[in-house]
Amino acid sequence: MSFEVIYKDADMRMKKSIEALQTELAKLRMGRANPSLLAHVMVDYYGSMVPISQVANIGVQDARTLTVSPWEKKWYKPLKKRL
Questions:
Q1: Is the pTM for the entire model greater than 0.85?
Q2: What one-character DSSP code corresponds to residue 38?
Q3: For the chain, which residues make up each domain, given as ranges?
Q4: What is the average pLDDT across 7-24?
Q5: Cα–Cα distance between 83 and 9 in angstroms, integer?
Q6: DSSP class of residue 75?
Q7: Distances (CA, A) of 77 to 32, 37, 50
Q8: 45 contact partners, CB below 8 Å, separation of at least 6
Q9: Cβ-count burial of 6 within 10 angstroms (0-12 exposed, 13-18 middle, 19+ buried)?
Q10: What is the mean pLDDT of the chain?
């Protein structure tokens, strides 16, 4: 392998790492709750794992509290246990 090939590969990997870090840091809002914090939370919905945003509304109650309101009444109890 030539130096140039190694350099290009390392450069591409570092750029991807920086993009991933920026994505994760964007989720953090110091001192304020943000619904995007739950973007990666998956729940079992009729046998399929789906993002929680597809089965419930996620809101901000105050600066430090998020609210999760399932769309179907039968989900209130199971979601409460999972979260």
A1: no
A2: G
A3: 1-30, 31-83
A4: 92
A5: 40
A6: G
A7: 27, 22, 18
A8: 54, 55
A9: exposed
A10: 82
